[in-house]
Write a sequence for this structure.
């Protein structure tokens, strides 16, 4: 495997009146191509901020971010849009589905902006929505909407898949099935997958675990033998 993602002293500050808040405070870490990575930490630690910067949806205040050798922190305008469309799959914590489109249409819409999409129906079947793909989001439970969001990201067949609490709205059994799908996809397609979660019990399934606390990397752990999801309990 070769280096694929590199964050170098990344900071992100916000101004709230007279107060300056550091959501990311000099974060640095590297991820190799094809790794399954879990980023853990409590709420407010800076996990989502890092994911948004890496996905090109937020801009770092300082520092550099490299993906596949390209410095994405230099991207602006059309170049940034192209990066998000063609390189990144993003599973949002709050779904972000188009309410006037069916589950299938939501997935198909995302596929129209990428180069090498997967079959939308097949991916929806893989996330357990074979019988629900023609339903609108309002007709789906929160867990089912989350699975549509996951299918939408996977169908883009991205090089880098970013997941913000992907099992947060799912029951235990479904959550395990989705994590297994993400882990299997990472292995089979050599897709680099980064999952952020507050659930440290998921750490053994990752190749690399990055622990973030107070906007800083507190620890990085490499697992020589990641556990299959089926063997993990939480």
């Amino acid at each position: 495997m070769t280096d694929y993602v590199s964050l170098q002293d990344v900071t992100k500050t916000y101004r709230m009146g007279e107060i300056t808040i550091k959501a990311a405070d000099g974060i640095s870490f590297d991820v190799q191509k094809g790794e399954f990575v879990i980023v853990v930490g409590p709420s407010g630690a800076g996990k989502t901020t890092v994911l948004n910067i890496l996905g090109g949806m937020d801009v770092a205040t300082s520092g550099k971010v490299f993906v596949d050798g390209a410095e994405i922190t230099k991207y602006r305008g059309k170049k940034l849009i192209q990066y998000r469309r063609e390189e990144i799959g993003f599973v949002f914590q709050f779904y972000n589905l188009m309410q006037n489109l069916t589950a299938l249409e939501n997935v198909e819409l995302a596929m129209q902006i990428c180069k090498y999409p997967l079959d939308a129906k097949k991916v929806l079947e893989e996330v357990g929505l074979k019988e629900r793909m023609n339903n609108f989001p309002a007709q789906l439970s929160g867990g089912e909407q989350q699975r549509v969001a996951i299918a939408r990201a996977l169908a883009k067949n991205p090089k880098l898949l970013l997941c913000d609490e992907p099992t947060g709205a799912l029951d235990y059994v479904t959550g395990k099935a989705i994590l297994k799908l993400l882990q299997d996809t990472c292995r089979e397609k050599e897709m680099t997958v980064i999952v952020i979660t507050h659930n440290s019990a998921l750490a053994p399934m990752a190749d690399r675990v990055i622990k973030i606390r107070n906007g800083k990397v507190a620890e990085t752990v490499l697992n020589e033998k990641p556990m299959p999801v089926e063997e993990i309990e939480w």
The mean pLDDT is 92. The longest helix spans residues 172-189.
